[in-house]
Specification:
Elements: E1 4-8, H1 9-15, H2 17-25, H3 27-44, E2 48-53, E3 65-68, E4 71-75, H4 82-93, E5 97-100, H5 104-112, E6 116-118, H6 120-136, H7 162-172
Parallel strand pairs: 1-2, 1-5, 2-4, 5-6
Antiparallel strand pairs: 3-4
Helix pairs in contact: 1-2, 2-3, 3-6, 4-5
Length: 174
């Protein structure tokens, strides 16, 4: 199943130490740095990615939808917040969506809609790990010298509920 990653843009920018510094210099600089980071991640993991920004302060020259480097960018209309747009997208996408935000209200609404949720810091760690593995490689083949004795039990461990197993599978695809 394809994953649609829906990101609360300003939330992720302001939670990230490197992006927050750029955001303090210039708002547009922070947005561009986030899109560049996500475009590099998209080259490694070809998931559909949408970043949602608050657009109430944006001039009317900008459309509510844009696309840059393969990343869909959405701005909220005047009178609504990016959180409202994210909730609406999570309701529409349901189980296909993975919502990235540190806002508790957004996370609980997305989870109630059936979407998987992830904290902004955890998503940034996933991006960093994907970049690291791309540079390092997926690992070298380890030659086995045969059977290794172990005391590990072979029976089934405690199994998570089906909904949580599916959510874990979506997160592991990142």
């Amino acid at each position: 199943m394809a994953i649609h990653i829906i990101i609360d843009g300003y939330n992720l920018i302001r939670r990230s130490p490197e992006l927050a510094g750029l955001d303090r210099q210039d708002l547009q600089l922070g947005r561009e740095a986030l899109v560049d980071l996500l475009a590099a991640y998209k080259k490694l993991k070809p998931h559909k990615i949408t970043v949602v920004f608050d657009g109430s302060a944006e001039p009317t020259l900008y459309g509510s939808r844009d696309r840059a480097k393969g990343i869909a960018i959405r701005y909220s209309h005047g009178g609504e917040s990016a959180d409202d747009v994210i909730r609406r997208m999570a309701n529409r996408e349901k189980a296909k969506a993975l919502v990235v935000s540190s806002d508790r209200e957004v996370m609980s609404a997305a989870e109630a809609a059936g979407a998987t949720v992830m904290d902004s810091a955890a998503f940034e760690d996933k991006i960093a790990m994907a970049r690291y593995l791309a540079v390092k490689g997926d690992g070298e083949a380890i030659e086995s010298s045969g059977w290794v004795p172990t005391t590990r039990k072979k029976g089934p461990s405690r199994r998570l509920p089906k909904r949580k197993r599916r959510a874990r599978a979506r997160v592991e695809k990142l």
